[in-house]
Amino acid sequence: MEPSEADVDTGFESLSGGTGSDSTTLGGMAPGSIDEVCQRVLLWGQREGGGLARVEYSSEFDRQRVVQRLQRELAQAGVAWTEIVLPTRREATDIVRFLRERLSQVPGGVVSVTGFATAFESKTPLADALRVVNFNREELVALPLRQLWWMTPVLLQTSLHAMPDLHGWFRPQLQLSPAVRERELSDTTIRSAVTPRLGSEQVRGVNFEDARQRSQNLLTEFFTARQAGAADQDLLMTYLLPALESLAEVGAQRELRDLTSQFEGFLGSLKLGKTTEMTTAVSRLARLYSDQGRYTEAEPLYVQALEIWKIELGDRHLYTATSLNNLALLYYSQARYAEAEPLYVQALEIWETELGDRHPCTAQGLNNLALLYYSQGRYTEAEPLYVQALEIYKTELGDRHPCTAQGLNNLAGLYCSQGRYAEAEPLYIQALEIRETELGDRHPDTAQGLNNLALLYYSQGRYAEAEPLHVQALEIKKTELGDRHPDTAGSLYNLAGLYHNTQQHQQALIHIQQALDIYVSTLGTNHPTTQAAMSWHELIQQAMDKLS
Question: What is the per-residue pLDDT across 197-216, written as a single tens digit (0 to 9) for each?
Fold first, then answer.
């Protein structure tokens, strides 16, 4: 039995730039990422006097993550944080009065204002309601407060025309992209491209129960807004997609699959226009399908998004490059390598031209193409790409960055596959040490580093050294991700392989059975990973029968 492969990066989802005067990036942070938005708001929030800023967001889950981090970091800087949630379905004059009164009660610091998407009663056109807000703008910004207004894409587009005077006062103007997360540059397993991509900011506080509760809250808001007559586009982007993504974020695959099935009718009836917002939503939905192994449903959505970006933005736009990458990743997950390769090459060429040959996104494109070559056994072509990506990470992000650890890990995996164990071992050890130091010894990525080193020892027949590392990795994943997470099943799968090859068939059977139970409940019986586990369960059972 072959254990699961070492973890490598399989790509990232859609990039998105900021809007207005703040469209440049900070120190290698992806534009629109949680890191970038937090850093900009943190710098803005510590300035003296009043001010007005806006953040366009589609995912309530991501917005909450930004808020939690800002609260913590502003408190450390001695800056007060106040939350104001607007009431729902009121006349515009009542909303203005409510906001003015609440602002007057805040002693100072940063004020986060949310709820604009559902604040106004449905009888009045949204544009007319926003014009009332614009008319009262001077009263709203007169206080020496730093106000952070959160706006959904649809609301923002309407407000740009309905209250242009007020928008002229928003500095900075930011966009939080739902798909640009820290996991963009984190690593995952070759074996299971459908499992969640946990990045360097996956925190222990984001657990299954938190995600389930957040998802339920969003669904409650979904039905309330739907009853009030909200547009399908708003329902999808403001409530349903964030509800699904909150489950995907922690790997709650069974709940995600059930919830997606529950809304199949709604999703199938959507009229998907060619706006930026809806095309981004299509990509997000395709990713959710892909992560569940539902490639047949994901492919036409990815193709549709790519065609729209090409028509609306051109063949050389960053959105087009990312869409090419997304479709290539889907093909890669299905082992359709001949179709994936030209798309990866095109995406890489665009990133090199538009961002430069030293940008981390370019490094990621090199990594993706190298992974494709690696999977085909084209090691001679993969190696220089992995080396180049690692060198960019070291130069641009530093020797201690998690992305550098990823690059070390990927190159070590290549050496291991070639039997170059003496070259692979120090790289695996270095990558593990970076993760332990930068992410902590309980982080899932650290567990994956332990898993990789264990696989190296396993490949050399050093089973006594491999076993405690696999056991430690399994213990971390159980604690941090839960007993029913697909990544936990991966560690059980690996231990089953080790026990099978050391003739400990009873232990092997116990572990493969546990892994199979998790895969069936989270991924379903038809998923390729589940099918592989079923096959090995049968082989191990046969070995037991022969012995008896």
Answer: 223 233 333 456 777 888 88
